[in-house]
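Backbone-to-sequence.
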């Protein structure tokens, strides 16, 4: 178990030090700003959705290692997915960290792949908001359908 935990820590540290899909996104048609006032994490998420698919997604901002790694891994996981698949991952990730899922929620069974590295975060409830900030921000951006920038707060 210790080797697995070490691997998970290594993946999170790698993505926090060298985040993927970090930077501005040209021709984005979905955007949201996320803020975690408790610890100072903040990000702007931008996505380009065409024909119901996340053609591209990126983020900018600053935060703790868990917050940045979560945003980085999330962008990798949802890029190229349909909006419905991205929403299913959003629900499954939330379930992974909180064990809260409505009965019969098929989204909670979505394949998380590399995102499983965050499973240990649920042992530290104060850090759950760090890990889910990017996901809540993505969810808000996808609900906007190009109608300005949504704002999300963990408080």
């Amino acid at each position: 178990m210790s080797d697995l935990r070490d691997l998970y820590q290594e993946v999170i540290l790698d993505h926090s030090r060298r985040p993927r899909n970090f930077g501005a996104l040209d021709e984005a048609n979905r955007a949201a700003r996320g803020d975690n006032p408790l610890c100072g994490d903040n990000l702007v998420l931008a996505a380009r959705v065409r024909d119901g698919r996340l053609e591209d997604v990126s983020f900018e901002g600053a935060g703790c290692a868990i917050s940045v790694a979560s945003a980085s891994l999330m962008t990798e996981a949802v890029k190229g997915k349909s909006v419905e698949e991205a929403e299913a991952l959003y629900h499954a990730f939330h379930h992974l960290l909180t064990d809260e899922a409505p009965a019969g929620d098929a989204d909670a069974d979505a394949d998380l792949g590399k995102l499983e590295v965050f499973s240990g975060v649920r042992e530290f409830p104060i850090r759950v908001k760090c890990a889910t900030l990017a996901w809540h921000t993505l969810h808000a951006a996808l609900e906007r359908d190009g109608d300005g920038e949504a704002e999300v707060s963990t408080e």
